[in-house]
Amino acid sequence: MEQNTGIHQEKIRKVYSEVAKVVVGQEYMVNRLMIGLFTNGHILLEGVPGLAKTLTISTLARVLHLDFARIQFTPDLLPADLVGTMIYNQKDGKFEVKKGPIFANIVLADEINRSPAKVQSALLEAMQEKQVTIGETTFQLDKPFLVMATQNPVENEGTYPLPEAQVDRFMMKVFVDYPSKDQELEIMRRISNMQFDFTVTPVLTKEDIFGIRQEVNKVTISESLERYIIELVTASRKPLEYKLNEEAKYIQFGASPRASINLNLTAKAAAYLEGRDFVLPEDIKGVAMDVMNHRILLNYEAEADNVKTTDIIKAILNRVPIGK
Predict the structure, then answer these.
(1) pTM of the prediction?
(2) Which has fewest Cβ within 10 Å: 52, 72, 235, 254?
(3) Which residue pairs from 232-240 have beta carbons closer than 8 angstroms and sit at least 24 positions apart in sequence?
(4) In CATH, which of 3.40.50.300, 1.20.58.1120, 3.30.830.10, 1.10.8.80 is domain 219-319?
(5) How confident is the model over 278-317, as pLDDT tens digits?
């Protein structure tokens, strides 16, 4: 890799160490958030409360020296609370724009499934178009612009599940797991120390992030691995052609074309974060679960037999040969 790439690799290592000053564990989550940032993709995090999802994202924003906004999604939230609105200025006798929290670099949409569809669609429109219209004026969102949404899988009462077509707009859906025993012991000790310091040093600038994006774009992927990605996605749509007979009866819809696009992008970023300028099969396999788990829709029979999307993806990865 070139010298400039080496400088960025050193800074990325510092990002991990700075975040670790505040957050115990969760390196996997930080890795996925950075893959999203370096490939211009949005991330959906799912996990029970108390797993430091919000703390990790806000800490990462400070380490990356980016504007951060947290929006707590509630049933009474309105689209204007998100994007902004026109307010009347009595002094000037004119309407003026009051921008909402969406005008930040990293936006945390906390418990996105707690708000109705019109609020979710306002957020997802901003994610897709990278712009917001207030009144008759359209505003471009600042770059980089990244949405990290969280949803709580425990409570279903009073929630509005994201439609599959909207979930598909997230590059990855990452399941956040409980910490290990040792990590939880460290968390308990840190929090019990009332003098614990939450300050971090900014490591990357916006220019660094744009530079890293260009470097990720230069990571090479062989034609055989490109075809491997297409085979993985096709296997989710036509499982019988890949002798996935048992899995076929549980799949209602396979992964969309966004799956193949994002498998390519995330595999390149994963390779880059490992310090390589070429993609290995392990990079694709490593990101396949997070890229595909929200894009394969299972039927009621799968729910009755307690079959999960992750089980289907594991079977696909085991069945589809590399370089077919």
Answers:
(1) 0.85
(2) 72
(3) 232/263, 232/284, 232/288, 232/292, 232/316, 232/317, 232/320, 233/257, 233/259, 233/260, 233/263, 233/292, 235/316, 235/319, 235/320, 236/292, 236/295, 236/296, 236/312, 236/313, 236/316, 239/316
(4) 1.10.8.80
(5) 999 999 999 999 999 988 888 898 888 888 989 999 999 9
